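pasting for the record
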Amino acid sequence: MLFCVQASQAQLLPSLKLGVKGALNFSSLKSDGKWLNSDTKTGYQLGVWGRVGAAGFHVQPELYYTQKKAGFKDQENNEEGEATLKSMDLPILLGTKIGLGPLGVRIQAGPVFSFAQDGKVDFNSATDFENYKKSSTGIIGGIGADIKSITIDLRYEHGLNNISQESNRSQKISMWSIGLGYSFL
């Protein structure tokens, strides 16, 4: 009985964590209609995160540099290519942690804001990174585990807006990521 009371109190106390993280991501471009067929390619994320929690919930803002890659085939023009999009991503996650002390499982979701840094799109014919918007918004959700100072995350990100400048060729990022982090505070 005493153990259960202590476990419930541990989730209610205010907490602060800061850390670094890295992740592998597996992204593809989704399109409205049938004009684009996308292959999943591997990219990465590197950055920092913070977590402030109380009353069983937490807010976890993060800032990381992301390289998203996708292979694709333009069905209309029969062209193949690969997109590499580099951005600074800012997710703001709301979540809860289930567990006791240094061990716990987290469930998180929230918006992610991406700000393009650089990128290239290689087709057989000339296509330019300038054809893509410099910012985008998505929604991200996933599960994670905390084991002392180590964090492990599995997440899915879905783009909410068209990243293409061309309104007739809507493209959205779809991405899975698996990350490993370290909390130094």
